[in-house]
């Protein structure tokens, strides 16, 4: 919300207000799809350079196509089984002898790898892929996605890009699961040595993701560090839920009547929503906000092992005499806090934009 408000002057991040964006050079390109629109969080296109955009699009298309083939290569043998006969008659290697996934790398003979590399080189070198050519836009004469209707052709090419993006995420996920568990499907039960098992029954471990720590913060299995991060996550989630509601509520219900600061003549109605409010709140108001935050932090012992360190400050709105119901409510609070952290950052971004 802060980011959106700062960039566009609106708490809701109205893209139409940000007319100076260099990204507008690419907002009608293939792959710009609802509900995200043109999405470039890393800022690769922030310079508006068309040549660089086209080179990256060419690379994205290739990676997406390779990833779609790789993903199907993982899935198909699991569903249909292996081909009959021999992969290498001279070496006595049957297709049935080659496992799925990463374990296959060591089983494929050198001649097989040479064939794979030769085919890749043929695809790369058999046509001119310099800027402006049909091949540079992914058209190698294989017309399965074409159509005589321009709108239908655009739809198919957009779908190919979207499916390629999904496949890039999918194949990386499969590699990760396969490397971690030895199974192309990432059977968690096979990875008995994982230090993450120390935390797989903690609050916030929810289906369908389970225990999710892509950054590997808990890979050392250190319980003390986990509890400190959980305490921080809970605080950030609660603050973000309040902040998100603080953005939304005035837009729906309107401002409070009367004065925010009678001495300075500032009415609640004078304070805009979002980031623009920062400059309107008087110093005494900021002092009150900081004083309340300090009170919440310092009024109770939050050292490891205390109730406060686990987020229990005696405000029992989420409690229950039924342990299962209490667990459900506390898990919901964590999940809602995580969503609110994403939401408030998105609102800042839109507001700033």
TrEMBL record:
Keywords: Chlorophyll, Chloroplast, Chromophore, Light-harvesting polypeptide, Photosynthesis, Plastid. One of its GO terms (biological process) is photosynthesis, light harvesting. GO terms for molecular function: chlorophyll binding. InterPro entries: Chloro_AB-bd_pln, Chloroa_b-bind. Chlorophyll a binds at residues 39, 60, 63, 163, 165, 177. Chlorophyll b 1 binds at residues 65, 124. SUPFAM superfamilies: Chlorophyll a-b binding protein. Coiled coil: none annotated. It is found in: Plastid, Chloroplast. Chlorophyll b 3 binds at residue 160. The keyword Plastid applies. GO terms for cellular component: chloroplast; light-harvesting complex; membrane. PANTHER family: CHLOROPHYLL A/B BINDING PROTEIN (PTHR21649). The light-harvesting complex (LHC) functions as a light receptor, it captures and delivers excitation energy to photosystems with which it is closely associated. Energy is transferred from the carotenoid and chlorophyll C (or B) to chlorophyll A and the photosynthetic reaction centers where it is used to synthesize ATP and reducing power. The LHC complex of chromophytic algae is composed of fucoxanthin, chlorophyll A and C bound non-covalently by fucoxanthin chlorophyll proteins (FCPs). The ratio of the pigments in LHC; fucoxanthin: chlorophyll C: chlorophyll A; (0.6-1): (0.1-0.3): (1). This is Uncharacterized protein. It comes from Amphora coffeiformis.
């Amino acid at each position: 919300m802060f980011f959106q408000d700062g960039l566009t002057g609106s708490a809701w991040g109205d893209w139409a207000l940000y007319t100076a964006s260099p990204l507008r050079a690419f907002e009608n390109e293939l792959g710009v799809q609802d509900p995200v629109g043109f999405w470039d969080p890393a800022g690769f296109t922030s310079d508006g350079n068309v040549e660089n955009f086209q080179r990256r699009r060419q690379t994205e298309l290739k990676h997406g196509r390779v990833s779609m083939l790789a993903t199907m290569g993982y899935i198909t043998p699991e569903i249909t089984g292996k081909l009959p006969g021999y992969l290498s008659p001279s070496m006595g290697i049957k297709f049935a002898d080659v496992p799925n996934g990463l374990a296959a790398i060591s089983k494929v003979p050198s001649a097989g790898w040479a064939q794979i590399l030769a085919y890749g080189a043929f695809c790369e070198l058999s046509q001119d892929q310099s800027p402006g050519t049909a091949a540079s836009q992914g058209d190698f004469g294989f017309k399965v996605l074409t159509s005589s209707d321009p709108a239908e052709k655009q739809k198919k090419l957009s779908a190919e890009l979207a499916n390629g993006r999904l496949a890039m995420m999918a194949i990386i996920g499969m590699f990760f699961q396969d490397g971690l568990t030895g199974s192309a499907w990432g059977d968690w039960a096979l990875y008995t040595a994982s230090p993450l098992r120390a935390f797989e029954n903690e609050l916030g471990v929810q289906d369908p993701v389970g225990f999710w720590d892509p950054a590997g913060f808990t890979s050392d299995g250190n319980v003390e560090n986990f509890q400190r991060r959980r305490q921080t996550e809970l605080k950030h989630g609660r603050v973000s839920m309040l902040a998100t509601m603080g953005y939304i509520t005035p837009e729906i219900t309107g401002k409070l009547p009367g004065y925010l600061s009678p001495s300075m003549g500032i009415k609640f109605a004078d304070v805009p929503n979002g980031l623009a409010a920062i400059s309107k709140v008087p110093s005494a108001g900021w002092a009150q906000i900081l004083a309340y935050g300090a009170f919440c932090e310092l009024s109770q012992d939050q050292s490891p092992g205390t109730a406060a360190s686990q987020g229990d400050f005696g405000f029992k709105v989420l409690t229950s005499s039924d342990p299962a119901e209490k667990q459900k409510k506390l898990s919901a609070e964590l999940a809602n806090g995580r969503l609110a952290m994403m939401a408030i950052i998105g609102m800042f971004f839109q507001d700033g934009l």
